[in-house]
Protein 1
Amino acid sequence: MAETVRAVSASCAFWTVARHELLLLWRDRSLPIAVALLLALICGGLYNGLLRVDERDELLVALLREQDSRVDNLAAQLRTAEADKLDVYANPTNPSSLLASGAGLRYAIMPSAPLAPLTLGQSDLLPSYFRISGRSEVNFVYDSDIENPWHLSAGHFDAAYVAVYLLPLLILALSYNLLSAERERGTLRMLLAQPAPLAVVVLAKVAVRGLALLTPVAVLPLAVALLARSASDFWNVAASGLLWSTSACVYGLFWIAVAVMVNALGKSSAFNAIVLAGVWVAVVLVAPVTLSLAVEVIHPAPSRIEMVQKLHKLHEAAMRHYADLDRTDYETLRDPGPRNGKVYIQPTTLRYFHIQREVSEMMRPWMDDFEATLDRRQQFVETYRFLSPAATTFEAMSDLAGTNLGRHRHFQRLASDYYRQRLSYVFPMILSGTAVSEADLRDMPRFVWTEERSGHGIWRRATSLAELLLLTVALCVFSVWRLSNSTRSLGR
Amino acid sequence: MIRTRKLCKYFDGDRALDSVDLDIAPGEVYCLLGANGAGKTTLINILLDFLPASSGNAWINGLDVSVEPLETKKYVAYIPEQVMLYGTLSGVENLDYFVTLATGRRLGRERLLELLGEAGLAADAAERRVAKYSKGMRQKVGVAIAFAKDAKALLLDEPTSGLDPQAADEFSRLLKKASDRGVAILMATHDLFHAKQTGTRIGIARRGKIVANLDASDIGHADLEALYLDLMRA
Amino acid sequence: MIAVVAKRDFIGFVRDGRFSWVGGLALVLLLSSIAVGWRHHSELAQERRAAQLEGYETWVAQGRKNPHSAAHLGMFVFKPETTLALFDPGLEPYVGATVWLEAHEQSDLKFRPARDATGLRRFGDLSAAFVLQMIGPLVVLLIGFDAFAGEREQGTLRQLSSLGVPPHRLLWGKATAVAAGVATLLVPTVVLLLAAVFASGDLGDSLARLAWLLLGYCLYLGTFLFSTLAVSAAAPNSRVALIVLLAAWIVATVVIPRAASELSRIQYPTPTAFAFDSAVADGLEHARRQALEENFHVKRSQDVPIEETGRALQIDDHAAYLVFDKHYGALWDVFARQQRAQETIGLLSPLVALRGLSTGMAGTDLAHQRDFAAAAERHRRLIQDMMSDDRIVHAGAEGYNYQADAELWRKVPPFDYASPPSGWALARCWPNLVVLAAGFVLSLLSAVASVRRLRPL
């Protein structure tokens, strides 16, 4: 019986305090200002994200259009080709044209994932298309798009940035003096003189703040993703969007728990502000960059210098291997063909493709090694990411948005496969000097994008969320213990 | 030494000081009695130029406090109800700091301890951090500051409230010592007992006006109390 | 008197533990980032030197071949690391340091280190500059926020005023105390950097760069110092002062630089590689065709007489130079416009100006990258022209099938690039210095004004 009475009074206390708190925060304008600020920031971030992703999507469409029109053009030329009018360096019947860096260029394209506008992640550092010609693989897989390095170094202003960097600050700004202000005003003693348990009072106070600040972060990005990006696959977008919102909320709860814990220590408002600012600096600014530095020291990226050196030497060696082909046959130059389904392939052309293929194959082990090192680095980060909830959340968000290294690595593998596929289609034609027909051109393999099988990905996201949640719960347990044991000292 | 003429102060139309005329000569201890809100602290704040007067003038050592605020402070020392000091420094360190600021001279350690000793603070206490000091100990540091800068005027705001009787008595004796050296002392208080014991003259303030000016030797304890209560009731 | 106030304040924030925590953390970060930076820097510098030398040797040792073929092998060159890059790597992680000098094509700087990094790279790079830029102001703010507000709350401000301490003396004293706190971060940094400069042997110019850097950081931290004191004197209590200052710090160091970068990009969009390459390809196509027709009156390159092929190649290359100059020039100009736009928005935060100055003096900004890229392209053209000249002189009727040997390869000088002098760098980033100085003066004036209004009650 006594238990029931207590429970009723606890819930009653909760609602009374919550109502009162809402009124207070509304009166001193801190809540409306913070929420308005948050809304403005999220809208700005979402707008910028949409802008960037639209830009990229348009580019990808333009690339395909250009590729198609180029192929159509070549097909038309093949239909009307008159042997003696052809420019030897732009001869569509020559099989090397299928791999030439102008006419034979093909794009491997990674479409942006539905949630890309929410987390732009590394999408500016990792290209979303490759230009694949007959040049060796190393020549295209490490390409990057043009960008002002200042922008690359500044990072993006997107919804994830608002959630990871700024949301905690707004949470802390509203709750750094959750209890200390009451004590400094002298109202805490009055409050403690009432029969409401302190933990319930604190819970009600943070519930108001949490609800006000987490709702926009949870709802707005999800809504934008569903409205703007779910044309094809509503349920899939809804599921990953919900996961994104959950990550943001769990991260927000972590910060609320931190604020409560610091308040439970019973120090002054200024002390709380300093400590909380310090925690923010440590978690958001320092821990990720320190971890990043640790990766560079413990698992350094393979040296690009060494790679370039190796590439240069391989190139020189390959040139030696095919030195006998280093000549132009002027007799046939003026009359490139085709004759009876055959084209005369210039020795220099043959040499070029041999060299490119040899360099590509000889670089393969180095590239595999390189990938393995990148994997080890990523593994290291995943092992130690718990050191910074900010890093954990950011990784989860870019993972969901498909703007992380993982999806790009998958893309790179697909592109490499495509390169080899094309080579094995065209190379025999070059060796045999087979003239290209329109059918050959149309039958060239095209790049097909397939999404990575995501079972592993979901597991990874779930564990990182669970880790963060666990940490949050631990902080809460400590706070509740501390609050219920220190009612007297807090009232002093 | 301390002098005011027609000194008035209004706060949003409320009269805190109303045409106060005051003359305190060197060696005199003037005790200003009055209830809370009578204007005692306001008077001291104006003498220290912490507040500007609404009208009228105040002089210390012949210098108008609002015209030459920095110059007047060479001659005045201030001891509030709670002497505020830096908690992380020891008594000696605090004294060293304030004295150097007040006089521009560094006194030796020995001399500082001697000054604190004169003010009644034992050497071992003087080495401890001020955060652990009692109110009385803090006041002794305040008095030591006044001694050290050789102030000609001493402004005291409720110095004895909250002191235990022994500490308050010790403090009264310190003030006597100071007035014997020719310091003019203005002490705002509502402690009738110590006002009578320490003061040479006693003023009673009510709603910003000084309604009575008495010679301490002319009046007994009981009469003073009766008079005070009479005036307050009026 | 100023020294007395300064000493008291210094003891105050040292004894209450704030300084030891914040300053200690910042110092540890600072020293470890310099140590890591130094190691990384010296390894990298050595590796690049050795690799470039070896690349040149490979070039010279290539066998007999047609000079144009040799131009296709080309060589690769690296941007040498400046000594102060260990302090501020600036844009280095976001621009490649490698250029492949090859026939026909002007190449970008390749292999951005950031591309090989983990997702954490997005949080920034831990360098000494990062620590001083982000954590430095925080140290200033945390030791200075209660300089006046705290004294007022303790009641000691009344005590000080009753002693006749003039407020401006208090200001200078407190400023000295906070400056002394900051100096404990700056001095070890400068000492280590001096050691690095002496170790690198490149004294005169690096010292000048270091001096300008130091001036920039002093102005930057000084701006925060006096703003902190101004707010502390004006705020009703130390809690308000602290919150206002923390908010200002976050806006100035975290929000504005990022927002300025994004806004400048929206204002001046960067062309995509696709658009850029298409424009270059179209330009090249047109220029080459025109050159062919004007010089040889033919439409197809195979119709050029054999003995003229060497000259045709050279004419073709020279036509391409103009196209490259136009398009690459325009691209760098877009970058420069973006940077200017970013710096205009960045007038709101001294950090934007400081980054410009810091990277400029460390030799890791856009201007230095551009200078290096231009030098590399000059060398590429030199190789290409030497190869074509030799063919024009010696090939005759052999045309492409003429072969040259090591004697020709040796004539090509190794690529020797030195970073431009400090005066050159200063000429490019003096506006940043002016902005920093203006910010400093403004903060100083506001501190003086707010201290003048200081009331002890």
Protein 2
Amino acid sequence: MQAFQYARPESVAEALAILAAHGPGARILAGGTDLVIGMRNGEIRPTVVIDLKRIAELSAALQVEDGHLRLGATTVMRQVERSPEVLRYFPALAEAAGWVGSVQIRNRATIVGNICNASPAADTAPPLLVYGAVVLTASPSGERRLPIDDLFVRSGVTTLQPGELVTGIDLPLPVKPMGSAYTRLTRRRGTDLASITLCVGVDEAGVTRLSYGSVGPRPVLVVDETGTLADPQAPDAAKAPILEEMLAGASPSPRSMRAGPEYRLAMLRVLGRRALQTAIERLAKGMAR
Amino acid sequence: MSDRFPLDLTVNGQRYQVEVPVYHTLLDFLRDDLGLTGTKECCVVGECGACTVIVDGRTVNSCLMLAVEADGCEVITVEGLAVDGKPNALQRAFLEHGSAQCGFCIPGQLMSAQALLMENPHPKAEDVHEALAGNLCRCAGYEQITEAVLAAAEEVAP
Amino acid sequence: MNAKVVGASVARVGGEARVTGAQEYTADLKLFDMTHAKLVTLDIARARLISIDKTAAEALPGVLTVMTAEDLPQPVPRFGPHVDDRPVLAVGQVNYHGEPVAIVVAETPEVAEEAVRRVKVEYEELPAVVTVDAALAPGAILVQDPSLRRAGDPLADTNKFSEYHFGWGNVEAAASEADLIVENTYEYPMVTQFAIEPHACVAAPDGDGLVMWTTIQHPYQLQRILAKIFKLPLAKVRVYSPDPGGGFGGKQWPHVQPAVAFAALRTGRPVRLVLTLEESFQAVRRTSAKVRYRTGFRSDGTLLFEDVDSSFLVGAYADIADRVVTKGNWLAAGPYRVPTVRIIARGVLSNTPAATAMRGFGIPETAWAREMNLDEGALALGIDRVEIRLRNLARYGEEFVPGETPADGRWEQTVRRAAELIDWGEPLPAGRGRGLAVGCKSGPTTGISYATVRLLADGSAILLCGVSDMGQGARTVFAQIVSDELGVPMERIEVVSGDTAVVPFTQQTSASRSTVLFGNATLGACRDIQAQLRTVAATLYGVDESQIAAEGGVVRLPDREVSFAEVAKAALSSLGGEFIGNGMDRKDATPGHPIKGSAYFFELNCTAIEVAVDPGTGELTILRHVSVSDTGKSLNPMQVRGQDDGGAIMGLGHAMMEHYIFDEHGRVRNLGAIDYRIPTSKDLPLELITEQIENGDGPGPYGAKGVSEGTILCVAPALGAAVRDAIGVAIRDLPLTPERVWRAMRDGK
């Protein structure tokens, strides 16, 4: 690994100042599980690395306030996976976080880092989309609240501006009882990058939110408000065309080593049906509000 | 701000105050500066787990953590598991169950197992499989490793 | 009296060092004044080198040298196990993705890394062949210039490195009598050893010689090759081989070691090179294969003939792959009584990393095809798949391959036990299936091992052992033998290994040979000491030698017993001294044998698998994996289980997820741990049962045969057959990824 400068600011303001001073040569270090790999293989050669972990305001405990759950910029997957609040209100997010890498990785990797890298295969993106997460940012020109659906552009590219820092994620508590489920497709059962990520949420009002990733440049969110998908009594024949339309946004790359496009598209449907079924069952069991 | 950084940390109960290049990983620091070569280097992308150590009670891949990030932390490596210079219950169980074959992955396996037992004294086999899924063993001694972890739990837990 | 330890699950010698982090592997060594090397490679499979500009790299402070082929003796030395075809560094052209074109030496690894980035290589991409079909296509580019081939090689202007014709009987005549002929083509993927310890090497000048520490299974072969390259006497080349952190065949033969040695001589300092995992993938791999089987049956399931056409894809350099071709194909008809056999087997050169030895050594490649084809026959004939195997399986003492060692085990016992453990014949719910397959591999066909045991004045003992202990637990087993034979407790035995200057020659650590060859040598050395003690005891106790027996650590006099330790102490009391015992075992070549040597023993395994297939996704769940091996006698059952479990799981990796993926430029796309997947603790069968058959019928100590490869031999066909049983479709390519299984279910036949 080549030399760089290391900064360990203690406030967001200080971090923003360093970001502003170094421009594109600055890189944010939270968990480091992607950054350090990139720096070691020479793909990323920063002039300064800004470590966020000493900024107290970014690492507050996960807690519910004002009708939402706040995740900090340095909140790691292991915290998300085990947080009683996440398990209670956003179980599919806990499932997704629990699938990321190994325990060692989940002890370091942050959920904010996961979305800022904008990998189409990011496990936490589909549940965050389904739950309507809002990304909180700070920059010299002020703070923003960005619906997560407006964050992703394509692999490695987001709508974040130069000098802008993600300080956290807000998850609005579901107002209606909701059942949700996360699922993924991999090459082995052990840790693996997903060739499909998929999350479904159905609520009491019959709205179905479906999000899927790893089958296009960015994760996709689609919503069905007809009530048919969420209806446990509706026949498969009625659901199939709706699901089909919702999955039409998938365009998996033919260059992928992990799975061919044909298989991915077929599995999207299989996993979509299964996750929908699980979400409906969970709603019925009252597993989540 | 500099490309060297003063580091103050504890490794296996011993405090170190040293200056390290910021581009050295915790793995580099442990192996090259402290000579603690029990922690192994293999994939350096956080997939194999050979470099697993415990930092503040949690396992990390030391190849993906800069040494400076361990400032103020308490680090335990495989060399720190022994009690009074003798293998601890987990290490003994690995010996008794033939869990160490070539041995290269074993320090990492031990650290993941140790961390598991610290937070879950009564794991089931599937808990062990989950906790150790980030530690590849190409000798594929997974069964004997799992048996050792379960046996150590039996011995240690009240 | 010392309790007998042979046959007991005693703790591993070196085990404590392995669980405390004290075990020193090559990469853990630090030498005074050590420098650090990195390789310069190109991101292309085949290319003509136009120029290499080292100036920017050499100008970097801390860089000691940047060596290319031009800095080596001319013509550039080439080397290999049998054919000297691999250059120390690429000469004029690179022939596979990752072939080193230069080696950079610097004061620190960081400087070496940066220097590598500054070496400018100008090259012109050339077309590459990376598959059997492409390499054998008319008009294909030649991977090796004909001048590199053996003089007079009739295949020199083709990509066939070799072609062998084995067999007996007349296939055409047999075919005319057959009630059923099944013909299919099967492919075995390109997989890699993936030892968790990456390859590493430290070389240094040593007076007028050379010293090297490296991850190597055959230190004495490396010593021979280095001596030849550097024109040094063997005595001036010292190879230390710290316990490898896993070998699996991949650490048998040198690849980068000679380049590191040249760098050490040039700089005059110790040079250390540790390959990245990605580079290790480019250094070693298993042969992949495309194999056609045509199998003839009588209607009662009796095998009439096997007609095999087999292409093993080797790399750009031969390494040991030609031997993989012969050993893997000579037994292509398996452990069965087949009256007529024709085998055409070839090694096919390609622009891929050099294929070398790997656990199973060619047998998994052919067993996959043969056993799957046998199942096809059984199904077509309506004969039970276990029954058809039992019907044709060679019985003990039967010369099932003409001129070959007769069947050395009660193999039907192995197959019956596996069938029993998998509940063969019990009904299964839909979506589940069972498969069973048999694998048979020659152990060593030639080999030699010398052992020296020193019984010291206090009754403790030292064994000098040339076998590399890479996880199989070699030292433990040999210490057990010494313990029982000389009556020395395990903790008073030291096994010294890994130094060619000190430890007597052992030819190889491969082919599951060590328990037998080195075990017999150890036994011989112990018997030598026993004889010496008997003579000494005669003098000491004034008894005629004919009335004394010395065995198992005890000298038996007519009126009493004295322990070896007591005799040693009494005999050596005045001057000190020791008893030195020497032993040797050898397996010579067999004159006229088609592959030059008959099997010292066979590794025979039967694997049976029950699988559940997810009908939507094609994902497999291994519900039960049974693997029964004929070990003759398990000297350390706990270690045997470690090897057997490990081989079984590695076999599942090959069968389910592992394979190199190439791009259109012949580059390996999935180098490293992220996209080359091996089994983790979450990928295990829900139930794994490994068992051993022990009839004491092996040629090794106490009736032992070799173990370590048996359980990998036929995992793929057992799984393939189970999947076929579950979904009704045979899949003939590996790995059986969810996608491939799904496609088979969708497409049907």
